[in-house]
Amino acid sequence: MIAAVDAQNLVDALGLGAVYALMAVGIGLVFGVLRLVNFAYGQLVMAGAFAIAYASRAGWPTWAAILACFGVVIGLSLVMEALVFRPLRTQSPAVMLVATFAVSFLLQSIALLVVLKVQGQLGVPASAVARLSRAVSVGGVEVRKVTIVSLVVAAAALVLLALLLGRTTVGLQMRAAATDFTTARLLGVSADRVIALAVLLAGVIAAAVAVLLTARTPYVQSDFALRDTIIVLVGVVVGGLDRLWTATLGGFVIGFASGVINGALPTDKSVYLPTALFTLVILVLLLRPAGLFARGGASAVERV
């Protein structure tokens, strides 16, 4: 039997949708410039979560743990771009896609080995951001602080990104590169600069997602954020991969739907969540193959 969807469930679903929207922005930025679906994006989030967990284990304050998370994720993003994306930039999309799979499994395996060796167990608790999971009462509804922070961070990130892409020279270069990379380079756009900026911004967003997801689930394992990444990738496709805003909306919608369905299902039936979710995805793609928010019959010109 399906449980009733109440205000509490809707609020929690909004928070999850905001986190997934942020992940979709990070994935969409890299795809817009490189035409690459980065399957290792979830492992960047995992690395940030582990940074928070080990900072918590060392007794660091919350602000230091969050800074460590941002440092690790941004550094790893730039290393990935320099060692993997840049050398393979001229190769086919299939080669780069396989490379991201390889990086994803490599990082996941390293994390598993480190945790087993250091902890002797499968995961590490992350208490530094535990205070974000505390709830406050708003109109009789218990709202976790992480839900409020997720909504604020997602809105701020989207506004700042819109200003960057629409009001700055480097933003214009990113949009030009996303539309036609070859022509943009002929007009003087620096490929290395544009790609590095896109990867850097995606890394900053991945670090923010790591903080938010760790607050929601303060126990970090080697497969941390893996399921979330798969769901967000599906949401990006459902929303429309060709434009950043449609991908973001797709990420939000699938996160919100996941939260609502999970809240509506009884506890002993929660294992059916993926079945219900992906059934809806299949129906959407059958009806709107180009994406739920794609313009009907129009080709995508602006991809960022």
Radius of gyration: 19 Å
> Please, what is the average pLDDT?
83
- How do the helices and strands follow one another from N- to C-terminus? HHHHEEEHHHHEHHH
- Structural class per helix/strand content? mainly alpha
Helix tally?
11
Give the low-confidence spans.
297-303
Fraction of residues in helix: 55-70%
Total count of domains:
1
Strands, total number:
4
- Specify the biggest β-sheet: 2 strands, antiparallel
Strand content: under 5%
Shape: globular
Brief summary:
The chain has 304 residues and is mainly alpha-helical.
Structural overview:
The chain has one domain (7-224). It contains 11 helices and 4 strands, in the order H-H-H-H-E-E-E-H-H-H-H-E-H-H-H. The strands form 2 sheets. A two-stranded antiparallel sheet has the order 1-4. A two-stranded antiparallel sheet has the order 2-3. The chain is 69% helix and 5% strand. It is mainly alpha-helical. The model is unreliable at 297-303 (pLDDT under 50). The protein has helices at residues 7-34, 41-57, 62-85, 93-118, 145-167, 169-179, 181-186, 191-216, 226-239, 244-264, 273-287, and strands at 123-125, 135-138, 141-144, 219-221.
Chart the SSEs and their pairings.
Elements: H1 7-34, H2 41-57, H3 62-85, H4 93-118, E1 123-125, E2 135-138, E3 141-144, H5 145-167, H6 169-179, H7 181-186, H8 191-216, E4 219-221, H9 226-239, H10 244-264, H11 273-287
Antiparallel strand pairs: 1-4, 2-3
Helix pairs in contact: 1-5, 1-6, 1-8, 1-9, 1-10, 2-3, 2-4, 2-8, 2-9, 3-8, 5-6, 5-8, 6-8, 9-10, 10-11
